[in-house]
Design brief:
By secondary structure, the chain is α/β, with parallel strands linked by helices. Helices cover 44% and strands 21% of the residues.
């Protein structure tokens, strides 16, 4: 069997992949669809992997760290999807928080935070996640995430509580049609991703007092909740929202008695480095089991 290792970092809105042959990076892609077995369809990801499979060859091991894979049942859904593409490979699926922690800390311990379309955090003991926050999803929780911030942006724009120039930067000059927005969001294949959509434009107006206050509130709510569940300390973060608004995020942690010392956009470089020193080592996650 091939000794090639295919690594996958699968988030709710996108995924990144890297193929290692004898520890050398031979192929990578960062533009594939995401998937979350807890909240949406995985069909787009499966189709994209099938289309790319000729350039990936036949890896002996496929190791994926995925959003929403914190239970055995959800992880098995992803494993079955991958098994249809990589029929001869051993496939291991772990949750994205373990992947983030390994990428951020290697074999050392610390508080790890994921802040992208969704939010998750936990304490890594150098081997496994031994304490994690209670994840209740973007509807009830995920404070500070793209979906959480985006929900506030849509709400304020539709209610007329957003400065006009901010609305134009985020949604264009024609304004929002409330009926169309509600229908689009509720019919989206990924509601969380649809809600997070305008956040990618928020950096254009980040100095506006409205935006500054909104980020302070949402990041503050996240820092407060994470601190309550994990305790104050030094955090490391990964994710598109953490990367885009690292300065505001650091201020929020400091305001609530913690520190943020490292922020990376995505964990793939760290995962490659980790698995080069832990060859063909299946993950050992402390994820809750169904």
């Amino acid at each position: 069997m091939s000794q090639d290792l295919l690594l996958g970092d699968v988030g709710g809105s996108g995924s990144r992949w890297a193929l290692l042959s004898n520890d050398a990076l031979t192929w990578s892609a960062g533009d594939l669809p995401g998937a979350n077995p807890a909240t949406g369809s995985m069909d787009d990801l499966g189709q994209a992997l099938q289309e790319r499979s000729p350039v990936m060859g036949s890896p002996g091991l496929v190791m994926v760290y995925g959003a929403g894979c914190g239970t055995r049942k959800r992880g098995e859904r992803v494993r079955m999807l991958l098994g249809k593409v990589f029929k001869e490979a051993d496939i291991v699926v772990a949750d994205d928080l373990l992947g983030a922690a390994r990428a951020l800390f290697g074999d050392r311990g610390g508080h790890a935070l994921i802040l992208g379309t969704g939010m998750n955090a936990g304490h890594f003991d150098g081997r496994k996640i031994d304490h994690r926050i209670r994840s209740i999803g973007y509807i009830l929780g995920d404070e500070g995430s793209g979906a959480d911030i985006g929900r506030c942006l849509f709400r304020d724009a539709l209610r007329g509580d957003m400065p006009r120039h901010v609305e134009e930067a985020l949604f264009g000059g024609d304004g929002l049609d409330p009926s169309a927005v509600v229908e689009t969001i509720h019919r989206s294949a990924s509601t969380a991703m649809a809600l997070a959509g305008p956040v990618k434009h928020l950096g254009q107006v980040r100095e506006d007092p409205y935006v500054h206050q909104l980020l302070r509130e949402r990041f503050g709510a996240m820092a407060l909740q994470v601190g309550r569940e994990l305790g104050a300390g030094t955090f490391r973060a990964v994710g598109s929202v953490a990367w885009a608004f690292a300065s505001e995020l650091r201020d929020a942690f400091q305001e609530h008695g913690s520190m943020l010392d490292t922020v990376v956009r995505d964990p793939m470089d760290g995962l490659i480095a980790y698995h080069r020193t832990h060859p063909m080592s299946p993950p050992n996650s402390a994820a809750p089991q169904d």
